[in-house]
Specification:
By secondary structure, the chain is mostly helical. The chain is built from 14 helices and no strands. The chain crosses the membrane at residues 12-30, 37-60, 66-88, 127-153, 159-177, 189-219.
Length: 240
């Protein structure tokens, strides 16, 4: 178990720094809206929706009903349903733990689970669980720290919600540098830009996800061949 936790901690280091500072940004905004530390901890524990939590702050200020908030949350986070498609079988094998894995599958956690390889001697199910749990703990800690800081320090929070966007950029760049095949990333970028131009900033996420999935399905055969070639090249490099 110790090796599992150590491996998961190393894997989640990029998210640790990103979630701490992004969580702090959320806590600051929530504190400015008049909600204290307990609210920050509760929302980050129960909602745990990253960018959606920033939107929730504006919802609270606007006095929207719980039903409206729930529907908006569903619409904004519907992209997570696509994430789960690639982990259906693995999550099924995790028994009751699958419920938490489904709940905790944020953008960053999904990114890590897709890109990381389970170290030798480590149980994959426990490894995945540790990654998901650590990521949420980082987020909760950041949110609480931000809320405390917001209650003690008064300053202008304009633009602080850009922290989430910055985190996405860092993770994308890191994966771009590590990956040999950049086709999936280019497909996602192209789909996002085209859908942004067609549907606008408020409606492009779902269409871009759908088009990305469809394009990647069409290119699956080519991607599989490229992946096998990359594995062969890597094995040859290791031998040398």
């Amino acid at each position: 178990m110790k090796k599992t936790l150590e491996s998961a901690f190393v894997t989640t280091l990029p998210v640790l720094f990103g979630y701490l500072f992004t969580g702090i940004a959320f806590g600051l905004l929530l504190s400015k809206a008049g909600y204290g530390v307990l609210w920050a901890a509760l929302i980050s524990t129960v909602v745990y929706a990253g960018s959606m939590q920033f939107v929730l702050v504006t919802f609270f200020d606007g006095g929207l009903s719980l039903f409206t908030m729930a529907m908006m949350t569903f619409a904004i986070n519907i992209r997570h349903s696509f994430y789960g498609l690639s982990f259906i079988q693995k999550f099924k094998e995790m028994g009751k733990k699958r419920l938490y894995m489904i709940f905790s599958l944020t953008d960053e956690t999904y990114s890590l689970l897709c890109s990381t390889k389970t170290p030798e001697g480590v149980d994959e199910k426990r490894y995945y669980m540790a990654i998901a749990l650590m990521d949420q703990i980082y987020w909760i800690i950041g949110s609480v720290l931000g809320s405390v800081a917001g209650a003690l320090i008064t300053f202008d929070t304009t633009g602080i919600d850009f922290a989430m966007t910055a985190l996405f950029i860092v993770i994308f760049v890191e994966q771009w540098l590590e990956a040999r095949n950049h086709l999936p990333a280019l497909v996602g970028l192209a789909a996002g830009i085209i859908c942004l131009l067609i549907f606008g900033p408020g409606n492009f996420i779902l269409p871009s996800l759908l088009s990305s999935v469809l394009l990647l399905m069409l290119l699956k055969a080519r991607l599989d061949v490229t992946e096998e070639a990359d594995k062969a090249d890597k094995e040859q490099e290791d031998v040398q």
